[in-house]
Design brief:
Elements (H helix, E strand, L loop, with lengths): L3 E10 L3 H4 L4 E10 L4 E9 L3 H8 L4 E10 L2 E9 L4 H7 L3 E8 L2 E9 L3 H9 L2 E10 L10 H12 L11 H8 L3 H22 L5
Helix pairs in contact: 5-6, 5-7, 6-7
Length: 211
């Protein structure tokens, strides 16, 4: 069993601004904690059509101030201050976990973070004191900065992109790209599909919290 664990929890946080906004669906991009000032600064993303949520946030007791709302394409970036004490973010900061992601959906906060194995029970007890713990998972932490493509897979992907094989419609067929690489068509497609699979697996694993 690994020393470091990834814990993902879902909680209905009582007496928090997130529990007051049941129609909110948001993803936290990042946050900074200022314990000495009694607040934390969060930046979340919500759908552009949910602009009314911002007005509700301004009136929430847990929100100190909405600093700025920026609309880009179909999303709103909301920069705001919320209370440090009594927040899940503040609790996790005090427990010195490594933050991975947070999403808020219809009154439920989902957090994922890295913690040492010997502190998992302590963290669960502390979180349970903040609200109704709906679900949690604990897995081994495996650091992966990116998909581990082989040199052959990188060459196949790079050459396919440069020659327009990935365009629609294609500007080159598999035979042309394979010839440039000095490979058979079958070998080129083998490397390319392996690259596709690794990239897709990496992206979908990292983006699970968006669903």
């Amino acid at each position: 069993m690994g020393t470091l664990k990834v814990m993902t929890i879902s909680i209905q946080h009582e007496n928090c601004w997130t529990s007051e906004l049941e129609d909110l669906e948001a993803i936290t991009m990042n946050y900074h904690v200022y314990p000495d000032k009694g607040y934390l600064r969060s930046r979340i993303v919500i759908n552009a059509g949910d602009r009314s949520v911002v007005g509700k946030m301004r009136n929430s007791q847990g929100v100190v101030k909405v600093n700025k709302v920026t609309t880009y394409n179909d999303v709103n970036f909301v920069d705001f201050l919320n209370r440090y004490r009594g927040s899940i973010a503040g609790l996790l900061y005090d427990m010195e976990v490594m933050f991975l992601f947070n999403k808020i959906r219809r009154g439920v906060e989902t957090w994922s973070f890295v913690i040492s194995r010997d502190r998992t029970s302590e963290v669960l007890r502390s979180l349970s004191s903040q609200g109704k713990l709906l679900d949690y998972t604990i897995d081994d932490y495996k650091l992966q900065l990116g998909p581990n493509l082989s040199q052959a897979e990188k060459r196949a992907l790079r050459t396919a992109l440069a020659n327009g094989y990935l365009d629609y419609p294609r500007r080159a067929d598999a035979d042309v790209v394979a010839s440039e690489l000095g490979l058979s068509k079958v070998t080129f497609l083998h490397h390319l599909r392996n690259a596709y699979r690794k990239l897709a697996t990496h992206y979908l694993t990292k983006s699970q919290y968006l669903e």
